[in-house]
Amino acid sequence: MSVPGALTLKPWLPAIHMGRSGRFYLDLGFACRWSTPEKAEYACGDVAFILHHDYMAVVAENTVMRLEVDDVETWWRHAHDQRLNDVYDVKLGRVTWQDGEGMFTLTDPAGVLWQIVQPRPGD
Fold this sequence. Notes:
The chain is of the alpha/beta class. The chain contains 4 helices and 8 strands, in the order E-H-E-E-E-H-E-H-H-E-E-E. The chain has a 4-stranded mixed sheet with strand order 1-4-3-2, with helices on one face.
């Protein structure tokens, strides 16, 4: 038995303060497609997620998002130049390379961990 094809996947991410988290994602490079006081959709190209004003520390601090990008160094430089770590008091790691894959980590204002990754060619 086969199932119909999936169209998209939009994870829901927690936010303590919608305004602060929304500005963080705009500064990171996402665009807001729509918003209400309780939730908003953010997208970058074909990648999207729902930011939701429903915070539980245990959920936020145990959520990991992996965003695969074409140029991890450019993404890191943008995050650094936007001073996301200073403005939002979040953690911004350095780019590391292992086996041809580049990656840096970034936490959002609620504590969600993002892995921004440039996959190995051919992956």
